[in-house]
User: Fold these one by one.
Assistant:
Number 1:
Amino acid sequence: MERKSVKQRSEYKWLLQRSGKMRVDGIIYASEALIAEMDDKVAEQVRNVASLPGIVAASFAMPDAHWGYGFCIGGVGAFDPGQDGVISAGGVGFDIACGVRTLHTGLKIQDIEHRKTEIADQLFGHIPAGVGSTGKLKLTPQKLDEVLTGGAAWAVEQGFGVPRDLRFIESGGRMRGADPAYVSKEAKKRQEEEMGTLGSGNHYLEVQQVVEIYDEPVAKAFGIELGDIKISIHCGSRGLGHQIGTDYLKQMTLAAKSAGLELPERELACAPLDSQVGRSYLAAMRSGINCALANRQILTHLVRQAMAEILPNADIQLLYDVSHNTCQEEEHNIDGKKKKVFVHRKGATRAFGPGSPDLPEEYRTAGQPVLIGGTMGTASYILVGGPQSESLSLGSSCHGAGRKMSRTAATKQWHGKEVARKLEQQGILIRSASLRGLAEEAPGAYKEVSEVVEVSHAAGLATKVARLLPLICVKG
């Protein structure tokens, strides 16, 4: 990004001053190195979002921001329905409620170090992954509607987990306000056989070792110790979410025109929150959130089954589950007043601080776990929302490393077999349904996750708790 397009306000805060049709400032959190690495399109998209009706506070970009559809990935924007605020499918993303779930295992590194190959094969055999992957669960249209209204709570009712799991899932495992009537038949058709599947792209299931603790009291509250083995699942709403995005982008393009909205670019298609299209998208998007929560819950059940067969002493419990592609109604302090606004987070993780009533009682004093995925060959991190996060970024933080290279460019530079071989030399076992997918997701195609996390920590968006290194990674 050209430095002249932003003004540095502090070591990690960069300002895109309100000008032209912008209604609020743009704020990017990044180091000098990350700013230099960002495409100019990020600044353009932050400005464009700042010009949308009803936006409040600022248009934000997180340290892992990169170009996306409409909003940048890593973009955050809140809209006030009382000020003609809008909702944008491009501000949520096509993979609705894509997110990370991290699991305790009750195991230490010494329990698995001599059985890694067996564990890798077992998990790969149990977890459907890859483009178009299908699961063993076949849903009738009626059952799928139950998933879309019930989320992870539905999955638990069907025997895919236990009630305790729901306490450690964002929104208690079920997003209220969902209505499958606003989800197209095509979207539902795509999901009939995809429940309990990872999908492809940057989605994964990873066995990880806790190698560093930064905040002992918070780590203790979260149940994290050095040497622990954790399992993280990164996936979303699969074909259903993608189709919802596709369907409503078309409708929003027409709705924006009918409402007389001047959009800086077509990809920012949106609709007034208080409109038929806006309300319909909210109901459909919330159905997509429930789909993703149920999907991760079913995958957790499959992990429990797989691990029980070879390590019966494993005790798989949820640490937390949080999405990073959503729009949620939240209460925030806007210009000195508490207001209910609709917060779009696209490739950005909710990071509520201590005392939030949305957190399980066990974490309320510490704050919300913020789960940050790395790449197949780099660390993942667990952070915690802090007291400053609300005022700095509407309670938001980064969500991962963030791409620095397109998938096409990555396949020109790396080959899947070589990526897997080099990672195995580092002690990381890879199981994947696609060699091309491994090339596309090569660690070198991403920014340095440790720097992204360091900026989030130093800027006060979220505080470091623990660092985890990958041991086994199952990819699509």
Note: The mean pLDDT is 95.
Number 2:
Amino acid sequence: MSYRIVHKEEVVPNVHKLVIEDPRIARTAQPGQFVLLMPTEEGERTPITLSDWDVERGTITLYVLEFGITSMKLANMTEGDTVFSLAGPLGLPTRVEQFGTVLLGGGCYGIGGILPVARAMKEAGNHVVVIIEARSNFLLYNKEELGSVADELHVTTTDGSEGTKGHNWDLIGELLDEGRTFDRAYFVGCTRMLMRCAEATRPAGIPTGVALNAIMVDGTGMCGCCRVTVGGKTRFVCVDGPEMDGHEVDWEELFNRKCSYRGDEARAYQTHTCRVTGARVKGSDS
């Protein structure tokens, strides 16, 4: 089967939106799930959160943060190109019910990943509050899309160029100090953001789900690369998640496992050479 890229754009620096043809995934996708994608036959499988899908067009939408070689290869693709392999939807869907008031948060690629969850929570009858964060206002995206779904959309920026100065977890603390109450929380983004947001909701006892982004290989629970300890028990992000209880995750273990290959990944990204043309590609140090 051919997985053709029908739309590709860099929405903000280093974050790329890809719309890819795959009617099978579009028909069965649910909020919170992900796909495993290989850009080329020689590449690696990388998990990417499903950010949207269109059943009629038979397409899925992904937001890719350019960080390593695989994401760099995806970033260098253009409309009309095809990816080598695409598997999904994988993982358990996000728990969606009529909770009451739901707090959702997203950062970097999670700004895209939180959209289908916000839509589903609203359709379930919840009052939906969304917080998105970025280092600066030029790194924010999807504000219009999220604003059309959420009852409240809040923005935080580290440099204070838009919205509240700080991070998602800073604003969560402010809202709770004001007396706001939430019946459920869910966050998508980098591991540090997930941990800090879970810490922010813990004192108020808000049930908090986090979409973990552990290292992953096969996506079936067989390789064990994505194992994480939650509530003292071993879980596998690919089949038991990606949503986990943010108040029960062993964050120190998760950080240590994610950092295992960081040095090798950085060196590979900086020195990667195209095997076909012999040219250095974007992301190299030349």
Note: Residues 191-201 form the longest helix (11 residues).
Number 3:
Amino acid sequence: MSKMRLVYMWSLRNAAADRAGQHVAYKGGQRYMKSPLQYLAELLDGTPLGERYSLEAVVSDDDPDSGRDCDRLAGYGFTCGEGEHWFFPPQLTVQGRRMEGLRHAVPSSYRRQPLASAERVAGKRDYEQRVLEMLREVKAAAGRAAHHPG
């Protein structure tokens, strides 16, 4: 049986807000804030999940031309080594591959446009098309979201 090919999509700015990859004060001591991506890598390498799924790509939508994204990523940057912190250890591997080698940036630059503008709508379509092309490039699994009644 072939493995289902996964793509992990995230916003670095959300991981930065969670202080992923940093040691934070916790109950009188320090605690490392592991990112969900790092946790997934550990599950794929250390549990039977890795027998069924392969992580093919990691996509971030952050926009280096957005002042807001730059502010939110202060201390991290957009690439490993650019800032004081990063979201996972630089040497992290998953299923025998370096995590950094799986990363793809697909900036959601449409977010710079006003909410009701036609440029934002067109930009979002363009962004979605670029994501779809990247998913096809890595031959990611096409699945459906689970339906939850109610």
Note: Confidence is low (pLDDT under 50) at residues 144-150.
